[in-house]
Design a protein that fits this description.
Residues 27-255 form the Xylose isomerase-like TIM barrel domain. By secondary structure, the protein is an alpha/beta fold. The chain has one domain (2-262): Divalent-metal-dependent TIM barrel enzymes (TIM Barrel). It is 40% helix and 19% strand. It has helices spanning 23-32, 51-63, 77-89, 108-125, 139-149, 170-177, 214-221, 223-226, 242-262, and strands at residues 2-5, 37-41, 67-71, 94-97, 128-132, 154-158, 181-186, 188-193, 200-205, 229-232. Strands 1-2-3-4-5-6-7-10 form an 8-stranded parallel β-barrel, surrounded by 6 helices. It has a two-stranded antiparallel sheet with strand order 8-9. Helix 3 (77-89) runs parallel beside helix 4 (108-125).
């Protein structure tokens, strides 16, 4: 299933725009695009919402017939337990996370201990935990950790754009993780020369115009055959003013949805 995530609304949620989009507003905008899945990922207000606010957000999602996934950073047992509770509130069956958070950087041994402690609760609840590929942890180490724990409810959130900062090739990341993928983050990416031709910047690109070989990912991971959701994100830099930035963000979202639908 194609879905949108909060990173597709990064600037629209931001206080740099005159009227930031609320979470429920993002739900409504997603449904208006004909998309039935939304991933609330790294959305800080979620963790400070009152019980009533969470109830209202979950009710809005149900009224719109949206499937909800959740995302956080960190694997401390108390954090994952909290998100498992949130998963229950939103009828969620997948939580995405990363090994590191702003507060903790566990060793692989500590990570394994924490994950083994909390996974029985995920298994009992029927909720998947998907750990994202990114530059702070070698893809081979992440794959080894997930394979070693060997839980049906533990897998990988595949985002091959992230690993370039570790000098890993996106195609290699896709091939290494394919068998363990439970979620895909979809965005294109590219290098551009900095002014003066001194070095490069690495950032987002409109889907289909960058370096991401998405057909290779589809062929290797087979997400549609395996029921793996594809969540649209962007790496869009500020475009100089709020109006232009929001317009560009919405255009990138529309183009990415069209691209994904054209490949089905």
């Amino acid at each position: 299933m194609i879905g949108l995530g909060t990173y597709a609304y990064f600037w629209q949620h931001s206080d740099r725009v005159p009227e930031p989009l609320s979470l429920i507003g993002a739900f409504e905008a997603t449904k208006e695009l004909g998309v039935d899945l939304f991933q609330i990922c790294d959305y800080a207000p979620l963790e400070t919402m009152t019980g009533a606010e969470l109830t209202d957000a979950a009710a809005a999602a149900r009224d719109l017939e949206l499937t909800i996934e959740l995302g956080t950073k960190g694997i401390e047992p108390h954090r994952l337990t909290r998100f498992l509770d949130l998963a229950s509130a939103f009828d969620t069956t997948l939580v995405r996370s990363m090994l590191y958070s702003a507060e903790t950087r566990p060793t692989l041994e500590q990570a394994e201990e924490w994950l083994r402690a909390v996974l029985p609760s995920f298994e009992a609840a029927g909720v998947d935990l998907a750990l994202e590929t990114y530059e702070q942890v070698a893809t081979a180490d992440l794959v080894s950790l997930v394979a070693r724990i060997d839980s049906d409810r533990l897998g990988i959130c595949l985002d091959p754009a992230n690993v370039v900062a570790r000098l890993e090739r996106p195609r290699d990341c896709v091939e290494q993780t394919a068998a363990l993928v439970k979620n895909v983050h979809v965005k294109d990416f590219a290098f551009a020369r900095q002014p003066g031709w001194v070095g490069f910047t690495y950032g987002g690109a409109p889907m289909g115009e960058g370096l991401h070989d998405y057909p290779h990912l589809l062929e290797t991971v087979r997400p549609r055959e395996r029921g793996i959701n594809e969540i649209v994100e962007h790496w869009l830099s500020w475009q100089g003013d709020a109006e232009t930035t929001v317009r560009t963000e919405r255009e990138w979202t529309r183009r990415t949805i069209e691209y994904l639908r054209s490949t089905t």
